[in-house]
Amino acid sequence: MGEFIAKRSLLIIIATLALTVGIGFFIPRVGVKSDILSFLPPSDPAVKEFKKIGEVFGGNSIAMVIIQSDSVFSRGVLERIKSLEDAYRDIEGVGFTQSLISMIDIKKVEDGIEVCPLIGEDIPSDRKALDSLRNYILSREMYKGVIVSDDGKYTAIIIRILEGYDRDKIALEIRRKTEKLRNGLKVYYTGIPLIMTFVNEIILSDLKKLFPLTVILLIIILGAGFRRPAGIILPLSGVLIAVVWSIGLMGVFKKDFSIVSNIMPVLLLAVGSAYGIHVINRFYEDHDVAKTISHIGFPVLLAALTTMVGFFSFLTSNLIPIREFGFFTGLGVLVACATALFFIPAVLNLTHRKGEVKEKSLHLSRKVMSPLSNAIVSIEKYIIIIMTVLFILTLAFSPTIERSVNTLHYFKPNSPIRVSIKVAEDHFGGSTPIMLDIKGDMTNPEVLNTLVYIEKYLNSLSKARHPQSIADLLMETNYNLNGIYAIPETREKVQNLYFFLEGQEALTMMITPEKDEALLQANDASKEMDETRAMVDSINCFISNLKNNEDWTRKILEWDLRRLGINAQIPAELKTVKIPAETLSHAILEYLNSEDVAADLTKQEKKMVVLMALRGDTAGIVRLGGIDGKYLLRDIRTLMDDIKTEYRINYLYDKFIHKKLSENEERIIKGDLYYLSLEHPPRVVPNDVKIIHTGLPKIYVELDKKLLLSLFKSMGVSIILVFLMLLWQLRSVTGGLISLIPIIFTVVLNFGIMEIFRIPLDEATMLISSLAIGMGIDYVIHFTSRLKLELKKKGKLEAAIRETIETTGMAIIINAVSVAAGFLALLGAELIPLRRFGILVAGTMIVAALSAITILPALILRIRPGYIKNSVKEV
């Protein structure tokens, strides 16, 4: 191969540059896509369920624009909110919006109830009306903390994006219109669609900033290591070609950068330069292309193959961006290897001056590395002991590493998007939706009470905020109509409530037109992945045990009381509450004396009706002459039921509540007591109800599981394939196993460091282990390859190890420092996962290099594997 390169140098250079230019034309086709859903395949059950929600209920992606003002209840601010919401509605792909202007309002009026927008088109102008509006809205649980903050200084406009539309494009349009219309108002953007637009912008910004920074750092390192222009230009040009090929091939396959693959250009700069460094370092010893390729070609190829194994092992991942990252970065490594073995030698062959001497380049290496080589040969036993102690200590820490796929952790604490997320959490319970799809007859009280039961449970969780469903609107309507904040006990009464809600836009995001499926939604207020996992597991467990609901009426009361700070133990069985006869008789008589009711009855007959009603003599009431007895009986029965229910509720309320509650709190507790007071409490969860838990928290947990699975799969594949390659190189099982020890030590040490410094396992840091195996093993390969050559020359193992450390050892150090410097450039990234990734990989590469020139030779000296003995015998 070396002779071929020497004869065809110019052709190789021209062909390489021509192909690079051709592939480079596809680079502009590469965009940025950081959508969290893109990590999981469309066939994944969690993704399918989430997308189905979007198709049925007018979108599953929720953007939230939060407006801050000294008081949002001023005409100017409310007019601005209306202008913004109108502008959002005009964006194609926006399915539903909700704000103080448009949110549904249900209130009691003189002749019944009124269902209309909360503010609507007519925004009050005088201060008194605005203050009245403020007091009304902040007194309602339906609005406070949902659409407006408790202090009235923050309000949210919620925008649902329809399924099938480009979320990034719509989110950017929302931001554009907001900036145009906000007129000096302070705004915060949150919700996954809006957050991802900022992530995309940061990714592009980081690429533009970090790529040239990495190039500068490489130039400095290469200049310090080689002290000649060719030692800088050639490794850099070779790896730049690899970068162009990788990004260009992404354009060919129509792939975009993600939160993972955006590190690829910087990574290739850092990693790909290694092959050129080793070729140039050897060339300055041999001064002949053919000899250099014969000496270094195989170890460089093998090193590239092991690095490719590290990247291609990600093809086993269940996460799409990680698979794409592994594939295109692996191709980039292949191109970097090809440029190191063909392009760089071809350039050296045409430009190198024959009169240069190699001793000059080796002098510094021997001066620096000689003390280290002498120390390793002398104290190999202590090196092994120190390694073993460190290995055990760090292994003990590794199992407790945190895992995190929380978007909040992408950003610096003071970044605008982190501030926006915190505002949403502090004032609105977050912007990440928990969703439950409930299939069943939504006119059936049992089904609707199932929604109530689930909502009450979610409200009892510390990290689930503001659960909402069609049940809330029905209970609100029932309260304003009948004075009870609960689901009525009959289907007819439920259908009557629906009559008042017909035509309201809010229903489209809560229930299907056929009333056979409903969406229950809450906000996730978790800040850590452990909290999200615990909450999702808790919800799943609750749903799976939902059939065991005999005491659900008692549970909801206990949950609501506990939420209000009232510790009351509700007995499993309550004694029947007897209503005093005088209470019933007074109510019946008052009804009979009301206008146009039983007008044909005399005073004495009315008293008889009261007595018959109390005795249960319904037949006697029906036989009364001069009136419609059946009609009167029906009304009296309804009246008596209502009186009994009201009396029981008030009795139980006085029994359990011993402190003053607000009007809203009182109606919630009395609503719970309504269920408890019924002689036959309603059932929940009929057999024909199906409940599916979905939403972003569940997707985060699914992603978290697959992240861990991907880590183990890619690590396993990397270790097996790397061992097979070492076996191919060394022809020794023992030698292969010994060669793996330094890199396994490096991986375990990395996990220990992550735990000590509380660095979580996320989309970026999960890549490190496989990369450490694939990239770090390069140093082992170069060391063992040179050691075999030196054994054949010198015959003695100690002398061969010294020579290897003093020559190839220096190249390994230069390579590790250049790789580390390249990755340290990621410390300038805006996204925190990239900064963690950069510092951890930099540290891992240094540890891997030091392990290769300290731990490996120490193990070889103590164990003397088969390939060492065979090499010595050959001499």
Salient structural properties:
875 residues, 10 strands, 64% helix, alpha+beta, Multidrug efflux transporter AcrB transmembrane fold
Question: Structural class, judged by helices and strands?
Answer: alpha+beta
Strand content of the residues, in percent? 5-15%
Rg value: 37 Å
Instruction: Let me know the average pLDDT.
Output: 85
What is the subunit arrangement here? single chain
Give me the side-by-side strand order of the main sheet.
Answer: 2-5-1-6
Q: What's the total helix number?
A: 31
How far is the first residue's CA from the last residue's CA? 27 Å
Q: So what's the CATH class of the domain at 1-30 and 228-303 and 318-357?
A: Mainly Alpha
CATH topology-level fold name of the domain at 1-30 and 228-303 and 318-357: Multidrug efflux transporter AcrB transmembrane fold
Shape: elongated
- CATH H level of the domain at 1-30 and 228-303 and 318-357: which superfamily? Multidrug efflux transporter AcrB transmembrane domain
Number of strands: 10
Helix coverage percent: 55-70%
How would you characterize this protein structure?
This protein is elongated. It is α+β, with helices and mostly antiparallel strands. A hairpin with a 2-residue loop joins β3 and β4. Among the domains are: 1-30 and 228-303 and 318-357, Multidrug efflux transporter AcrB transmembrane domain (Multidrug efflux transporter AcrB transmembrane fold, Up-down Bundle); 568-682, no CATH class. Helix content is 64%, strand content 7%.
